[in-house]
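Data availability (excerpt). The following record was deposited with the supplementary files.
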Amino acid sequence: MKFKALLIFLLFIGFQIGFSQNREDNFFKPSDSLNKKRQNTVVISEAVLATGTLVGLNQLWYANYSKSDFHFLNDNAEWLQIDKAGHVFSSYQLGRFGAEMLHWSGANKKNQLLYGAGLGFAFLTAVEVLDGYSSDWGASSGDIIANASGTALYVSQELIWNEQRITPKFSFHTTKYANFRPEVLGSSFSEQILKDYNGQTYWLSVNLHSFAKGSKIPKWLNLAFGYGAEGMLTGNRDYSVALSTSNSKRFRQFYLSLDVDLTKIKTNSHFLKTVFSVFNTVKIPAPAIEFVRFNDVKYHFIYF
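Predicted structure:
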């Protein structure tokens, strides 16, 4: 279940949106000092959601597989590391949301980074423990390193710049490969978003104005560097599926595109700021240059 990190992230996105549905704009305004009622709401809500998700995963997924002693599984060569990029993205964004919700409650910076930003790493690592006790799976050291990297990316920027200048983002498009193995890559659009790594692209979106404060570059304009891969019918190249109609060869893709940092759009509405923060996880469709294996260049009028 190597799509689990993205699935868990989407569950937390739903929580964040639901948490934001209130008519009073003052509700969304961060507290100037510690508001214990808000802090308790955040802590209890996150604990309930995390516990419910772990119990649900254990009952709906892991219960269908036999148990074993805790063990590790080396899957670092699978899916051309697209799944690892997903772990970096999910850990970063979950940590960002955790920190922002503690900021909303008025918690100090230290607690925001220690308890909020650590949410993604702690939760995704707990899922790795469940993997480790499943005989069909195994805890992945690569996943744990990717989880730590996503958390470190958020925390280090706050410590160095006191802002997020580089943001991991996600985009997806359907591919032909899911038709060859729908049981693995997904039979519906919602399943393919999670399972079809051929259609997933992970980005590092860099805010240009943040690195040139005195310039006239729009504060919302970003330059995005993307990574994707195609031709993958299975995770492991050595365990390929012989489908004569696919003619698939695994290859990496690198992208250069423009993007928008929604959090830099000026608004006095705290509700809109919350909405922009949630949707800043997604790369804006835009023209892009694609480098295939660094020796073949393609141009996309609009890429997502």
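Summary of structural features: The first strand starts at residue 166 and ends at 172.
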